[in-house]
UniProtKB/TrEMBL annotation:
Family: Belongs to the OAF family.
Keyword terms of this UniProt record: Signal
The keyword Signal is assigned to this record: yes
Annotated signal peptide: 1-36
Superkingdom classification of source: Eukaryota
Name of the molecule in the record: Out at first protein homolog
Domain (Out at first protein BRICHOS-like) ranges: 43-191
Gene designation per UniProt: Oaf
Keyword Signal listed: yes
Residue ranges of every copy of the Out at first C-terminal domain listed in the record: 213-278
Length: 280
């Protein structure tokens, strides 16, 4: 039975029909994809192998009008990871919906949002993403390249109600994480220099730097520094170019896939908001 007041973890969005299924490995289709350029995101669903060997489904959506890409995958433990790249605003958003363990008295799920600067060479352009097709949707894909772990220290907060000033995606993506949206001073500075209103950003308590890691704190009510790590198991990180005798210049003919781990350190006002961080 569902306990009263339970909120369901949002599931991956339903698939849009794909009109074109082109070659395998993934290639860029010459014709424009479903909805590309018409305001309806094009979606690709791929099966990916996680580092621990398990297979999960990943959904990749591209909206070339909004110039954005989003990626969503569910980990075997039920955690839903999503990544949004907003090329217009140089913003990327990571969101984790972490399922609580009911027997430990935890609430249904906990949401975290990490917002950092998007560099345009981190992932392929949205217009190329919208054209990606696969011939064999059952194929299990594994990233061709493993990129190094990126460790980020999230030292300021984002005010959810002002979030649209930073990226129009923030309101949807971080709706469950209103009290837990983090970014970095250096990213905030980059965006404010480009005209984003500084009211988006909020200082965290000054002592945050000196606090112990949550794994070392016993008192559930005490503030501490929490760490959350996530993995983008498979994403198209670069375009591949081919040469042909019929064409004067190299042309885009596919993608290179990458896997990358991120680890975020951030302030929590209470140890109990970081239950996964065990004694290291
Ligand atoms: C990346 O994360 C996955 C799952 O979280 C883990 O199994 C793997 O060892 C990590 N790899 C690196 C290079 O940190
Ligand atoms: C967030 O911004 C709104 C509007 O400026 C403001 O009223 C509110 O107090 C801010 N929230 C926090 C937690 O500072």
């Amino acid at each position: 039975m569902r306990p009263p007041g339970r909120r369901d973890v949002p599931s991956a969005r339903p698939a849009l029909p794909l009109l074109l299924l082109l070659l395998s490995p993934l290639l860029l289709g010459a014709p424009r994809g479903v909805g590309a350029g018409s305001g309806v995101p094009a979606e690709l669903r791929v099966r990916v192998r996680l580092p621990d060997g398990q297979v999960t489904e990943e959904s990749l959506q591209a909206d070339s009008d909004a110039d954005s890409i989003s990626l969503e995958l569910r980990k075997p433990d039920g955690t839903l990871i999503s990544f949004t790249a907003d090329f217009k605003k140089d913003v990327k958003i990571f969101r984790a919906l972490i399922l609580g363990e009911l027997e430990k008295g935890q609430s249904q799920f906990q949401a975290l949002c990490f917002v950092t600067r998007l560099h345009h060479n981190e992932i392929i352009p949205s217009e190329a993403m919208a054209k990606l097709r696969q011939k064999n949707p059952r194929a299990v894909r594994q990233a061709e390249e493993v990129r190094g772990l990126e460790q980020l220290h999230m030292d300021i907060a984002v005010n959810f109600s002002q979030g649209a000033l930073l990226s129009p995606h923030l309101h949807n993506v971080c709706a469950e994480a209103t009290e837990a949206i983090y970014t970095r001073q250096e990213d905030a500075q980059f965006w404010t220099e480009r005209g984003v209103d500084s009211s988006v950003f909020e200082a965290l308590p000054k002592e945050q730097m000196e606090l112990p890691r949550c794994g070392q704190v016993r008192d559930q009510g005490k503030p501490c520094v929490c760490r959350y790590s996530l993995s983008l198991a498979w994403y198209p990180c670069m375009l591949k170019y081919c040469h042909s005798r019929d064409r004067p210049a190299p042309y885009k003919c596919g993608i290179r896939s990458c896997r990358k781990n991120y680890s975020f350190d951030f302030y929590v006002p209470q140890r109990q908001l970081c239950l996964w961080d065990e004694d290291p």
